[in-house]
Amino acid sequence: MKKLLLVFSIMLSAFSFAQAQTASFGIRGGANITNLSGDLQNEDLFKNKIGFHAGATLNFPVIGNFLSIQPELLYSVKGFKYDEKVPVLLGLGNPGYREGHVNYNYLDLPVLARIKAGPLYFEAGPQVAYLLSVSNEVKTYNSNGTLVSETTRQKSKEGLSDFEAGYAAGIGLAANNGISFGVRYNGNFSDFVKEDVNFGGDVSNARHSVIMVTVGFTIGGK
User: Fold this and answer.
1) pTM to 2 decimals?
2) How far apart (Å, rounded) are the C-alpha atoms in residues 83 and 185?
3) In angstroms, rounded to a whole number, what is the distance separating the alpha carbons of residues 82 and 56?
4) I want to staple 184 with a disulfide (CB 3.0 to 4.6 A). Which of 96, 170, 191, 192 is the partner?
5) Cα 77 to Cα 183: distance, rounded to the nearest angstrom
6) 27 contacts 56 by C-beta, under 8 angstroms
7) CA distances (Å), 67 to each of 77, 118, 121, 214, in order?
């Protein structure tokens, strides 16, 4: 909780400084194309999943209209989808399979340096993320296709790291009416799993990998 308060304090400080620098406020949202990366034991089992992000942005100039700093606070749904019918061993060594997807719901705080070149902009910077909850929507079947167990909306964060440190980088188009369209990649420097207690070691060395397709609308500023 103290770390979460620190994140909000950083955002508040950025807001106060941005106000003094003729800041522009904005909102942002769009789709996440998410999966896992890293030293995975069974990488082929994990497929891309569609999530979303939404939140607020601040942008304040450093060098005119050319260079600015943009902190953001985003709710972001990450995770992965299992390939169809992933084989597993049930009780007494009986074969079965599982399918479904897992959502990891985060609060992201990227602080980006943004360079504007005409209608184009380029952005990059560090990011910290706080894990809010987990939605595990996975079904397990026996070899006959009979449902054995179903896990839905499981909110335990057992074995997972609350905080992650990473980076974000992207490119986009910004119109004069304040609307922008962009593509951004989010990566992490460390694994988000401390101890794999739910997936049999498959995600022990996993990191989130996210491609964001994002739309923003900015108000104010020069």
Assistant:
1) 0.79
2) 23
3) 31
4) 170
5) 16
6) yes
7) 29, 12, 10, 20
CA angle at 199 for the pair 194 and 205, rounded to the nearest 5°: 40
Q: What CATH number belongs to 2-220?
A: 2.40.160.20
Burial track 79-115 (b if 16+ CB lie within 10 A, e otherwise): bbbbeeebebebeeeeebbbeebbbbbbbbbbbbebe
> Contact, 163 vs 189, CB < 8 A?
no
pLDDT band for position 11 (cuts 50, 70, 90): low
Q: Which residue has the tokens 């942008």?
A: 59
- Other Cβ atoms less than 10 A from the Cβ of 173: the count is 12
Query: Which of 136, 139, 133 is closest to 153 using CA atoms?
Result: 136
Instruction: Give, in degrees to the nearest 5, the angle at Cα 178 between 26 and 11.
Output: 20
Instruction: Quick: pLDDT tens for 131-160.
Output: 999 887 777 777 777 777 666 555 567 778
